[in-house]
Amino acid sequence: MQGGSTGIGYGLKYQARCISDVKADTDHTSFITGTLSLREENEVHLLRLSAGGTELICEGLFSHPEEIWNLSSCPFDQRVFSTVFSSGESFGAAVWQIPELYGQLNSPQLERIASLDGHVGKLNCVLWWPSGRNDKLISIDQENIFLWSLDCSRQAAQVQSKESAGMLHYLSGGAWDPHDVNAVAATCESSVQFWDLRAMKKTNSIECGHVRNVDYDTRKKHILVTAEDESGIHIWDLRMPKVPVKELRGHSHWTWAVACNPEYDGLILSGGSDSTVNLWFASTTTSDELTSESVFKSPTRELDSMLLNSFSDYDDSVYGLAWSSQEPWIFASLSYDGRVVVESIKPYLPKK
Prior knowledge:
By secondary structure, this protein is mostly beta strands. It has two domains: 157 residues, YVTN repeat-like/Quinoprotein amine dehydrogenase (Methylamine Dehydrogenase, Chain H), CATH 2.130.10.10; 172 residues, Methylamine Dehydrogenase, Chain H. The chain has a five-stranded mixed sheet, with no helix packed on it. The relative contact order is 0.14. About 1% of the residues have low confidence.
């Protein structure tokens, strides 16, 4: 099914690549995003969906001088988030806190809680502990994985361990396994590497095309989704890692982002440089594993996979995707021209 966007839009001042759901805000559907301007002072925008679901409201606007390449919200404190940034050819990462009375301040300034120093070369992403309160963080640069211990009260972060992927590998990103907090998947050119954080060693890998992004299925163990150049997305069962269990070819150019729904089995978003966001249903459930969370329960048959809708009225590449944790039928997308669009997927779900 093809269709344009009927969502709620919000325009950033400059170009942008990253957006994150504010999971710790349990009272609202909120997102946080940051800009990527080479010459201007960059901004972090805290956005909140209005109570009626008809408007995106900017709850906070904060200065962040450097270009923001990666941004992630803390899962247990709605005022805390991390950024990966660059200034010229140098990269860095930091954890920030939004001031408590930011709505009442004329010029609210972000407070730097900790800098994640020690990286060499291009820094790619910061990963928070998958859910709940924990002091662990992961940062990944082109050659290394760092495990950090963060102490917000003391405004400090310490390296717990680090390991190099080797000179022949260039890491580009990763995802923390929500089912096994000792495991992380790191994207690496034409493969995904799996690391055990206890030993800080690589345990396995899967070979695939050029991987731009990766996400774990939060509802099903062993299921991983990868965004691939020119071939849409691949779905992997890590118990059988030699070939993907599904290949969904819904993009006409590179696929840059992929996101599995936090509540409903089989719902996946993908975004790419064809200026399109695709909404998929792709079942990985066998007949003896049917769950109540599935949005496609049927007494006679189970749907396998289908493209539910293509949101195609973007003017630029889509790099950022984020499901709402509070309202899992809502997602936000971000295109490179700084356009945020919030959509509801309810109109595109088949009638039960």
